[in-house]
Amino acid sequence: MKNTVSSRQYTVCSRKCIVDSRQFFYCLLLIAYCLLLSSCGYSLVGKTSSLPQNINSISIPIFLNKSGEPNIEFEITNRIREGFIEDGRLKMMGDRDSDLILNGEIIKYSLKPVAFDSKDNATEYWVEIGVMIKLEEREKDNVILQQEIYTKWDYKVSQSVTEADINRLEAIRQAGKKLAQEIVSIVVEGF
User: Fold this and answer.
1) N or C, which terminus of the chain has less Cβ within 10 Å?
2) What is the fold, at CATH topology level, of the domain defined by 57-189?
3) Do residues 52 and 99 lie in contact, with contact meaning Cβ atoms separated by under 8 Å?
């Protein structure tokens, strides 16, 4: 009988250990989850910035086009302006009234085939766009930032020339939005 009692006690003890180890495991998971949440590096857009308090507005003249792709400067400039408007931390103003002036040049535009069909016809392209930006304080005539930024966006080719061109133009718009997000982040958060 002693063996049975001892065996039962051992079983009870091992059950307690299992329960304790499960509780310990769940406690570790909870702690890891809390640490993960507290170390998350995301912040809400439009709430904070590293801009000095005297910097409240920006102007963005039409970018110069050195890429060889006609009229792309209007699309890219408009996407970047929209990016600042959507962000809302800097007001869009005219050149004479703004605290900052963001000048830019489109220095690269290329189409790069990235996918092919069985007959070696391109079925997908990357639109690659590069810009050089220069951020200046208007009153101090001081260059704060000068940087090249590159991006790309893919699009599928269609049998229809019209549809393929529409897809290419949409890829340019999306690349412009991507550039805008990066430029807004660099200007507002990296000031």
Assistant:
1) N
2) Double Stranded RNA Binding Domain (3.30.160)
3) no
Q: The whole model's pTM is what?
A: 0.70
pLDDT given for residue 94 in this prediction: 87
The two tokens of residue 151 are 């991006």
| 140 touches 161 (CB < 8 A) | no
Q: Which parts of the chain register pLDDT below 50?
A: 1-19, 39-47
The type of residue at 31 is I
d(CA 32, CA 13): 28
**C-alpha distances out from residue 30 to 18, 21, 24, 42, 146, Å:** 18, 14, 10, 21, 45
pLDDT at 28: 62
Q: List the structure tokens of 52.
A: 């000095």
Question: What pLDDT, on a 0 to 100 scale, did the predictor assign at position 6?
Answer: 44
What integer pLDDT is reported at residue 51 of this predicted model?
A: 77
Q: Which of 53, 13, 45 is nearest to 180 (CA)?
A: 45
Tokens of 8: 């039962």
CA distance 180 to 175: 9
Amino acid at 6: S
* pLDDT value at residue 25: 64
- Look at the chain and count its residues: 191
